[in-house]
Amino acid sequence: MTHKVVVIGAGVVGLTAALYLLEKGHDVTMVAKNIPGDIDIEYTSIFAGANWMSFAQDDEIFYQELDRPGYGYFMNLARNEPQSGVHIIPHHCYFRKSQLVNGKVPYAWYVKESFVENVRYLEKSELPSNEDEDDEFVAGVSFDTVTISTNIYLHYLLQKIYALGGTLKRKTIKHIDDAYNLHHSGEKAEIVVNCSGLLSRFLGGVEDEKSYPIRGQILLIRNSAKKQLFLTTPGFKDESLYIFPRKEGGSIVGGTFIPNQWSGVVDPELAKRMIARAKKYLPELVDPKLGNDPEIDVYRYTVGLRPGREGGPRIERVGSIIHNYGIAGSGYQASIGLSQLVVRFAEEFFNRSKL
Ligand SMILES: Cc1cc2nc3c(=O)[nH]c(=O)nc-3n(C[C@H](O)[C@H](O)[C@H](O)COP(=O)(O)OP(=O)(O)OC[C@H]3O[C@@H](n4cnc5c(N)ncnc54)[C@H](O)[C@@H]3O)c2cc1C
Ligand SMILES: *[C@@H]1O[C@H](CO)[C@@H](O)[C@H](O)[C@H]1NC(C)=O
Ligand SMILES: *[C@@H]1O[C@H](CO)[C@@H](O)[C@H](O)[C@H]1NC(C)=O
Hints:
Elements: E1 4-8, H1 12-23, E2 27-32, H2 61-80, E3 86-96, E4 120-121, E5 137-148, H3 150-163, E6 167-170, H4 176-180, E7 191-194, E8 211-221, E9 228-232, E10 239-245, E11 251-256, E12 258-259, H5 268-281, E13 298-309, E14 314-318, E15 321-325, H6 335-354
Parallel strand pairs: 1-2, 1-7, 2-6, 3-9, 7-15
Antiparallel strand pairs: 3-5, 4-5, 8-11, 8-12, 8-13, 9-10, 10-11, 14-15
Helix pairs in contact: 1-3, 1-6, 2-6
The structure holds flavin-adenine dinucleotide and 2-acetamido-2-deoxy-beta-D-glucopyranose (2 copies).
The site of flavin-adenine dinucleotide has 42 residues, from helix 1, strand 2, strand 8, strand 11 and strand 13.
């Protein structure tokens, strides 16, 4: 049976939830202050890496299950839907001695899982040598993963939504109750899905004080590489280095994970450190033999704010509202897992209201 649904928010979380609900046959209106194409500090999804690299620990089964279905979904898009802007690329994670938890490599639950392609621990000889640094690399994980060109993918989701009859309205919602009255049919929505990201802190007068930003400075560069990497940077607690080359060429370089900083202003000293690290750990970026410029060629310096939330994301149904926000640094990789939960919560609600 078709039900009337309003989805608040058109970031990757809201768009994916809307698409899943449409695929179940529901009549969906999206309402959002920011939509695909916007470049606005309030619209996190445009600034993401975005790759699949689960941050779940060994005992964090809930997060593992949120990330798991995204892997196969995005690998499939890369292979079969070139218009999605998703491609497959080998990924290397390097871990330092200080990062081991009880002697074990963190965030590596999926090494023992068969769903991740070509996953393995790296040999010592494959780790970067870093005699110049205090905290040596002692382990690494490599696997094939996806990098998603965010702008292309957000538009792709919207095109799929339109093709299925979904609608989108650009509007700021001031109060919870308003959302029910914004369904395109003119009738009241039966269920509202709240995918408001970081702005959940300000929405509706009932602000979620647990939502907070995790600031990430990024550089978009024209240089490309044949693999992506992620490593931490000793001496700079909230900094790390990641480089994700994209399908259309060029790469995104990050990153920082600075909690509670709202500023969208680029830190130029940090940008210099990021460029130096990129050259040091992935020299092919500046190798003319591989068609690259001999210098890092930055086309945008910018900042994104991950929607952090104390205690983790809120994914639950309260009456006829499904909350689905606060997924921090995992919004792309978890978008499929989250949307499957939204569909289940909606179904549960419609089943009950039938009784
Ligand atoms: C630097 C950086 C790197 C990242 N890298 C990765 C990565 O590699 N992999 C990964 O999986 N994730 C990554 N992320 C995380 C990912 O970007 C986020 O988790 C994801 O974008 C969150 O999406 P969202 O839809 O919840 O929020 P948003 O994209 O912020 O969307 C929120 C939506 O809600 C709307 N909204 C809010 N309030 C209202 C209101 N009152 N009325 C109407 N509309 C409203 C907004 O306008 C917007 O449309 C990264 C993030 C950053 C910043
Ligand atoms: C969405 O969640 C936020 C945070 O809890 C809340 O402030 C807001 O009122 C909610 N919006 C809707 C439509 O439920
Ligand atoms: C809803 O009802 C259908 C049909 O009875 C059933 O197959 C489905 O499992 C139910 N879903 C939930 C989440 O309760």
